[in-house]
Write a structure and sequence with these properties.
Structural class: alpha/beta
Helix content: 25-40%
Oligomer: single chain
Number of helices: 11
Order of helices and strands: HHHHHEEHEHEHEEHHEHEE
Radius of gyration: 21 Å
Strand content: 15-25%
CATH topology of the largest domain: Rossmann fold
CATH superfamily of the largest domain: Vaccinia Virus protein VP39
Largest sheet: 7 strands, mixed
Number of domains: 2
Shape: elongated
CATH class of the largest domain: Alpha Beta
Number of strands: 9
Length: 291
């Protein structure tokens, strides 16, 4: 009988999922086994000859097969790292991406290099999802008061869990539909910074995305309308009503949306300056407007 050691499970797992696109087989397998054993990756390396209990072996192969079908790893282990913080994620919320850190870093750098660094900052995060953006800003900008809004009940639940995990008292989560609100929930307040990673995929393009995204992640967090720009128009419209005299609007964009989103910003006739930032892959990922 073959011993089911840590090394054996890792080898089997990699062999099962290595032919799939859009994944890192060895890392995925390590994370799954680390999750089941409640150990870190270093433990797996140092204890590769340790035998694994049958009940965990069974769960391991179940999760590997599920991953092989394209089910997001983050939903299985309920975890995703973002901005050096560990976030709870579950089915029904968008998995935080490393690309989005470009947006958070833009806002943090803006604050630290402006007169806002020594003031109480009011930030609004539109479409918060897991709360990754809002919570990261609240965590790293101690003088901020962040309001995070979303229409999804699962997103609201998830974001609140993450606020609790980090024990933050400067991040507030609210359920608001930006396309259908009475104007009192957020417009009665003024914000120094408005930030958003909105849905920006063209409706007809969603089915062509990797299986992990197209079949398992929430379309509500992906679908930006026929041209992918529906949310940007609404966000700029809202920003015009809720901005402070010296403020910033910063949004994540798709790889080919720099010109289109810039035009939406320009047509609003409110921004004195517009800037663009690239992600680590050299793709324009963030558009920011300043008053």
């Amino acid at each position: 009988m073959v011993k089911r050691t840590i090394e054996k499970l890792l080898q089997d797992g990699v062999n099962i999922i290595k032919k799939r696109e859009y994944n890192n087989p060895f890392l995925d397998v390590q994370l799954i086994l680390s999750y089941l054993l409640n150990k870190d990756k270093i433990y797996l390396i140092l204890n590769k000859d340790e035998e694994v209990e049958d009940n965990i072996v069974g769960k391991f192969y179940e999760m590997i097969e599920k991953r092989n079908l394209g089910y997001p790893l983050q939903y299985m282990i309920n975890s995703q790292e973002f901005m050096g913080l560990e976030f709870f994620v579950q089915e029904g919320v968008l998995v935080p991406r490393p690309d989005t850190e470009t947006l958070v870093e833009k806002v943090i750098n803006y604050v630290k290099n402006s007169n806002l660094n020594n003031e109480n900052i009011k930030i609004l995060d539109i479409g918060t999802g897991s709360g990754a953006i809002a919570i990261s800003l609240g965590y790293y900008l101690k003088n901020s008061h962040v309001t995070a809004i979303d229409i999804s009940d699962v997103a609201i639940e998830t974001a609140k869990i993450n606020v609790g995990k980090l024990n933050l008292n400067n991040v507030n989560i609210e359920k608001i539909d930006i396309f259908n609100f009475n104007g009192t929930e957020i417009i009665d307040d003024k914000y120094d910074i408005v930030v958003s990673n909105p849905p920006y995929i063209e409706s007809d393009e969603i089915s062509y995305l990797p299986t992990e995204v197209s079949q398992y992640e929430p379309k509500l967090a992906l679908d930006g309308g026929k041209d992918g720009l529906e949310y940007y128009r609404q966000i700029v419209k809202i920003f015009k009503e809720i901005h402070e005299s010296n403020s910033m609007l910063s949004v994540e964009i798709g790889y080919n949306q720099k010109r289109a989103v810039t035009e939406i910003f320009e047509k609003s006739n409110i921004f004195q300056k517009i800037e663009w930032d690239k992600d680590l892959s050299g793709i324009y990922r963030v558009v920011s407007g300043f008053l």
